[in-house]
Amino acid sequence: MTVAVLDTGIDKSHPAFSGVEIIGRNFAAGAPDDFTDINGHGTHCAGTIFGQAVNGKRIGVAPGVTRAVIGKVLGSTGGSTGTLFTAINWAIEQKALIISMSLGMDLVGFRDRLMQQGMHPKQATSTAMRVLIDNVRFFDKYGNLLRSGSAFGRSALVVAASGNESDRYGQAPFVLGAAYPGATEDFLSVAALEQTGDESHPFRIASFSNAGAKIAGPGVDVVSSVPGGELGAKSGTSMATPHVTGVAALWAQKLMLGGTVTVDKLLDKLTSSAQVPEGLDESDVGFGIPQAPRS
Questions:
Q1: Which of 11, 14, 37, 41 is catalytic?
Q2: How far is residue 103's CA from residue 181's CA, in Å, rounded to a whole number?
Q3: How far is residue 219's CA from residue 164's CA, in Å, rounded to a whole number?
Q4: Cα(94)–Cα(213) distance, integer angstroms
Q5: 281 is catalytic
Q6: Which strand (E) or helix (H) includes residue 195?
Q7: Cis, peptide link before residue 181, omega less than 30° from 0
Q8: CA-angle at 193, arms to 48 and 275, nearest 5°
Q9: Is the pTM of the predicted complex or chain greater than 0.90?
Q10: Rounded to whole angstroms, how far apart are CA atoms 104 and 166?
Q11: Catalytic site residue 41?
Q12: pLDDT tens for each residue of 80-124
């Protein structure tokens, strides 16, 4: 079973990935065979999915994964829809069953950058909206083809971050909807949770987590691998996404033991096992927190 991570690359020499077959490709600027992670984001996400224990500390949800496909789609200047499209197709060709994408389009941030470059606010808003509409149309059609397998002869489950553009607990609270491509109808968008320290309601939605996600996972102060062989903590829906991907990998492994595994079967196991803890709202966490299969 193969899991794909489309992100900033990976530090494949990290001890967390010992024994894992890593197939990588760079879709950002630079040599195609150089998928080294100089940012740390991709290495952290990969570690949460399938990382081995480091100095006795378990970091990976599914450390039994032995084959990983790593697509470097984010460089120093970000990425593009075209780059991501090419990388997803490549991951499918590499027989990835689950594709993890801790990335997204920040519509408001994009508009603000256009304004900073001198564009009139109305023109910047219109341009950002046009880009969003184009992305919505593209990913919704593409997601349907991908899930059905009609475009490639096989399908894959895409797990994607819902975005970090909200501020739920600030002085002027606001909540934004899930960002694309995570909001794509046939993708599994992920919200981030944080611990409260209160046993009566142990989790709450993270302040930054966007609304409208289909499922949720831990996303605050998550410890995982970082370049250079170390461990480090990061927060974001980016960190919640690999947790859900890891649980999906565990379900895929269990389904394979009993026969064939399909995206629909995998999605059903994730959603039917999920629980919405006390105090959380389905509008924020969807089906809730997916539970790993019992051995």
A1: 41
A2: 8
A3: 11
A4: 28
A5: no
A6: strand 188-195
A7: yes
A8: 95
A9: yes
A10: 14
A11: yes
A12: 788 898 999 999 999 999 999 999 888 788 899 899 999 999 999
